[in-house]
Amino acid sequence: VKLSEMLSILIASAVLIAAIAISRPVSAGEIPTFAVDAAWPKPLPNNWIIGEVGGITVDSQGHIWVFQRPRSLTDNEKGASLTPPRSKCCVAAPPVLEFDTDGNLLRSWGGPGAGYEWVGREHGIEVDDKGFVWLTGNADNDNAVLKFTLDGKFVMQIGKIAPSKGSNDTTQLGKPAETAIDKDANEIYVADGYGNHRVIVF
């Protein structure tokens, strides 16, 4: 075997070993690596800005739903919405935002409206397979779960924005943290643990 052939075989072997090492799947004991994508999401319309994010979920289509807190923005951050305007930027985005995987805004809605009590501090969000959005809050009297269509039409409210009645009351919640849907049983599990100490099923 010539030296040049042996060198070619060694280089090819090294490249193959390196490729296998780089592309091998991560095992359960390893820590994954994450990187910030500064270009996600894409710029929002209407001079909008996002406040603190209370909740985030992914629906069955792979769309990312963000439940953000417009009231967490300072006057300097939302200066364009003040009277008189303090700056050219910005205006608080609606609380519920739906994005595709590329960061394009698909839908936005939320806030106080007719027929329901809006939460004091936006927190949990879940989108079920039937196309309903479930929202929770975690301010002192956020003792309810709200259900909306994907477009933000109000469907129902469980509990009230009022003081909790304790863990033994089945009509009122206690700052519910999150929800999970059991589609086979057509039930919603509520982690009712910030104010109460239970999981309750409706």
Layout of helices and strands, plus pairs?
Blueprint: H1 3-23, E1 48-49, E2 52-58, E3 64-69, E4 91-92, E5 96-99, E6 105-109, E7 122-127, E8 132-137, E9 142-149, E10 154-161, E11 178-182, E12 187-192, E13 198-201
Parallel strand pairs: 1-4
Antiparallel strand pairs: 2-3, 3-5, 5-6, 7-8, 8-9, 9-10, 11-12, 12-13
Description:
With 202 residues, this protein is mostly beta strands. Helices cover 10% and strands 34% of the residues. It contains one helix and 13 strands, in the order H-E-E-E-E-E-E-E-E-E-E-E-E-E. The longest helix has 21 residues, at 3-23. The model has no long low-confidence stretch (mean pLDDT 89).
Task: Write out key terms for the chains shown.
202 residues; mainly beta; four-stranded antiparallel sheet; 13 strands; 10% helix; globular
If helices are DSSP runs of H or I spanning 4 or more residues, what is the number of helices?
1
Number of strand segments: 13
Proportion in helices: 10-25%
**Largest sheet properties:** 4 strands, antiparallel
Mean pLDDT: 89
Question: Beta fraction of the residues?
Answer: 25-35%
The assigned structural class equals mainly beta
Extract low-pLDDT stretches: none
